[in-house]
Every structure is written in C-alpha cells, then in structure tokens.
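Forgive a beginner's question, but would it be possible to get a protein, spelled out as residues, together with the matching structure tokens, please?
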Amino acid sequence: MKKFLSRVHSAYDAPAPADARETRSIFKPRMRRPNFLASVVVNTIRALALIVLILMLAGAGAVVGIARAYVDTAPSLDLTLIDDQAQTSFIYDAQGNLITDYKGTEDRVMVSISQMPMRLRNAFVAVEDARFYTHNGIDVKRIIGAFVKNFVSGSQQGGSTITQQLIKNTILSSEQSYKRKIQEAYLAMQLETQYSKEQILESYLNTIYLGENYYGVYTAARGYFGKELYQLSLRECAMLAGLCTNPYCNYYTRTSETTDYAAITNTRTDYALRMMYENQFITYEEYVAALEPSTATVLRQSPDAGSTYNYIYYVEYAVNDVVQTLLKLNNLENTSYNRNLMENELRTGGYHVYLCLDTEIQKTVEDTLYNYQSYPSLRDPADKIYRARNADGTYDEILQPQAAAVVLDYRTGELKAIVGGRTQPTRRKTLNRASDMNMPVGSSIKPISVYAPAIEISKLGGSAVVYNMPLPIKEYLDSNRRPTWPKNYGGSSYRGPETLRTALVKSDNTAAAYALMNYVGTQNSANILRALGVSDKHINETPFGLALGSSGISPVEMAVAFGVLGNGGVYQSPITFLGIADSSGNVIYDAHANQTSYQVFSPATAYLTVDMMKEAVSSGTGTKAKISGQTVAGKTGTVNMTGGGNRDIWMACYNSEISCAFWMGFDEPDQKHKLQGWVSGGDNTAAMARNYFK
C-alpha cells in the first residue's frame, strides 16, 4: 500500500508534459471578479437572439401552415371556367349581312391565337410577363423584385405572370389578399401542366378587360380603332397592351384627344414599345418608327354611344322569338325569370342568329311610315301628344295618331318587315305597335272571319245571296236587351238582297252579320281565327266582335291570317329568324324544319276570297290602294266610336308574293280620342298601302 501511494505522489509531483503545460497556460485563473452589467447585457442579447430565432422558426412554420391551408382550400382547376367566357352574339339579315351585335356587360368575341398577329402577342408579353415562355406559371425573380420595390417605394406593383392573371380573371377574383395570391400561384402552376403556352396566351388575350365594355383584343381593336386584328399597326398593338395596366382611367384612349389622358396614353404606349425593343421583339428601326403617335388611329367616339339597332322594331321582335325558342330548347317554363335568363344567354353565348328580315323591304316600310305626309286629322287637336309615363317617373311625349305595318312572305311564312311606330325609336325596347298592341280591326276582319268561312263551311259562291237589310239578330241587343241589327258605315242605305261578293266589296255590315249568323256561326268563326294564328285572348267571340271587328288583333296576326288566303288556304306559322348557330358555327335550331303547316281553307275558297278582295281594291272601299299595272287585293277597316268619330283604321292587302297589314290609331286605350269623322281605312291606310306598293 505504501509503495502504491508513493508511486501516486511521484506521478503528481513529476513535471507535466509539454501539451499539458500549454493547456494550463490557456485556462488561466480569474484574477478579478467579472463585470455584472456586462454579463447582464451579454446574456440578454443571447436570450433575445434565441427568442428571435425561435419566433422566426415558429413564424416560418405558421406561414407554411397557412400557405398549405390556402392551397388545400383553393378551388379546383376547372378549365371550363377558362374556356366558357361570356361571348357577344351576332344578328344577321336574310342575306347573311351583319345587322348588329347583341351583347351583355362584356363585349367579347373569342378568336384563335392564329388570328392574333405576332406583334400583338409580343406587345402583351413584353409589358406583362417578359419571361412568359420560360417560367412554370410563376416568376420568382419578378415576385422578389416587386416585393423589394413595393417595400422601398410603398407602391403596390404586382408580380403576377400572364398565367396567374388568367387564373385571377376566370377562376378567382381581384381580391387583394395573400390567400388569393397563394391560390393564384398554385393554380397557375397546375394550369401550366395542362395548357401549352399558346393556349394560355390565347385565353388571356380573349378574356382581358381593355376598357369600356371591351373584353379581349378582338372587340377592343374593333371598338377603339375600327379594325380587324391583322390590320393593327405596331403602335396600336402597343397601345392595347398599355391599356391592360389600368383600363379604367389612366390609359383610356377614348378621351385621349380632349384630356390630359392623351399624354398618359402616349407615355404608356411608348413604354410598351420600349419593353418590346428591350426584350428583342422588335428592331431598333421598328421601335423608332412606332414612337410617332400618328401611326395609331384612335376613335373619337364610341360606336355604341347613344345608338340603337338598325331595324330596331324587327330585331327586338325577333329577339323575343329567339328567347322563346331557347326556352323550348332548354325545356324551361315560360316565366319572366326564365325569359330574362335566356335573354342573358343570348347576350353572352356567342350565338349567330340569321333573321328572315329583308332589309330593302324593311327600309321601304320604314320610309313609308316615317315620311308619310297625310296622317289623319284629330277631332280634338289637344290629343296630338300622348304623354306616356316611364318606369323612372319621367314622361315621353308621343305624337298621335300612331301607325304600324307588317309585311309577310306568305309563301314561306317569313316575316320580312315590321315597323311598330311612325317615328324611329331613340332607345331600345320601346312599344312595338305591330306586335304589342291589339286594336279593334273593324271591317278588315270580314274576309277571314265571315266570307272565307262562309264559302268554306256552307259551300257558297260569290253570287250567293245575303241580306243587306235591318233584320233583327238575337245576338245583337239594344240597351233594353232587345234584338236589333248592325248599322252600315256612314249611314249608307240598305240595298236589300245582294251577292256575297258585293257585300264584301261594299263592306256592308248588315250583310256580314247575316252571313256570319246564317252560314258560319260564331263558334266556327272563332275557331277559324284561332287556326289562322290569332291569339285566343284577342278574339271577341260575339257577332259584333267577329262580323264588325271589335276583336283586337295585332298587325302581325292580321298579316299572317290574310297570308293564309294568299297561300292557297295553307297556314304556315310565321317565323322571324331562319336559324341559330352556336359560337362554333354549329346549327342548333332550323326554323323552317320546325315550322307548323296545315290547311285551313281549300284552295278554291282561298282563290275566290282573294278574287273578291281584288274587286274591293279596284272598285270598292279600297280604291286608294289601287296601282296602275299591279294587281292588289285587300280589305279596309274602320272602327266607329260611340257618339261619332273613328278611332282605328286598317288596310290588309296582298300582291302575288306578300301580305301586308297597315294600322293607324291612338296609343291610349280609351274612347275619348278620335280621328275626324270622315277619316276611314279606305282613305289613309289604303293610301299608305299604295305608297308602299309603289
């Protein structure tokens, strides 16, 4: 034991190795007490650094977690939302000439990228996303650059790529939030895996908002410059690309000629050109040449400013027919809500509607009504202006009497012209008197409600005898409810027995009433009117309504009903449009293929009735419609009012191809307003018809 302890002590007392001596020199004993304040500061800094590090790690984790939550709650990449954008529809005449576009709040026409000139595509890429062809949907360099610039300048410069903007415009919204930005980036990267760069750029240039109600480059080029895309100059391409930064105000080209926006627009256009040059999309020579503002043409006024459609009465009536057809195609009930829904579908579905409208006939009818110089006098001159109250509480002052006219090709059932007033409308969706008003038709109803039915049902000829005599008819009751008889127009004498032909030519009321009650019957007459296309609610199923014309029938219905006689007794449902094609040009509805057709009168009945109406024009009540060298057939109508005076006057007539209906009268539905006592259908409306046929 002693030896062991001796060896231990010897070891401790022995000189230390060199490396041990060096170690002891490093760790020297503290010679004085440490500074308390310095220790506190150092330890505090260490603690704060640790806390900051922990917070940064926690924050990063929270950011990642929030970002992950935003991604998980992002909407699915629904490509139909990108492809199915609202598109402007177009309406054409019977010859295929464009009449008007028909659009909603977004005026858009989708075109393929092959129709977009390369300089136009390059202008948008240079301004909006220079690295568009190389990134995967997001541009990290641009995002960092935008972040730094926003931090330094306090601005809100965006870092979105074209792909991200397309996602925002079609799937997401313009909400300014990190959530939208993260979801936008996520969906943009997804889209890049499913669409090619050309498809993305095509969709972007078709959906981008470019001021006013122009969406997409096609409508903007036509709206601002009146040009097709291929006609745009380099500067015009750059101007459109410059618009996309702020189309609402700063770069609004429409006002550029009269405000300080001209300088802003030109500056922005010059910037777009510079970006095209710096990104090597154009040469220096092209860049310098395009800096000249005169190389762009800016419209001075919106083509839609204060305008209405051409042929507005016809177009709006046809649009209503198209809406009704879309209801049927979509199996929807005819309600106000569904009609509005289908009208919006027509405005936004990119349809192509081909009307039956013959613009030459329409112009002739418009000229006839708008420039007619012999509108009848009024019994009370104070009735000359009718004040119609609008929904907003304002009033329109409407000249009286008014007029309407319709022209039908009875061989095809195609409506060729519709004019619903004596003046050109100044706004859309005004009253169309040709279709929306049902006025008493007077004696013009007799051929279709009395004489043709009598020939058809009772097998009468033109020489059949009817009685023009004051014979009591039980259905005609006086104020004491005793049977009485109708009076002839103007107090003309009773000629006694006369032929069916004479009764029609002279328009004798008593003879018509006799023929109705003895050879037709009110129920048969009403049923025939229904078969001729007259609405049931427009038929006054009484002897007075059927023989003397108190039934309120629209000019459209009158032209169609008379057209049946011209067409050999065959009814064809009237059509205003030939067909509808979708945005891709596929026909979705053929009007003639869906047209109703059936025999109402025999050809012999139709021929005889028309022949008698020829005589009514050549030597009867309609002589003012007679034209030398032409064969015109027709029937006049005059509506007498209680206490004297006439209110509505008519002329329904034919030639070898078309049937027409002309009306004059008052807008206000009461009996106070009257024309002068001598005014009749044989005067003014017959003369108006003659002006048209000339």
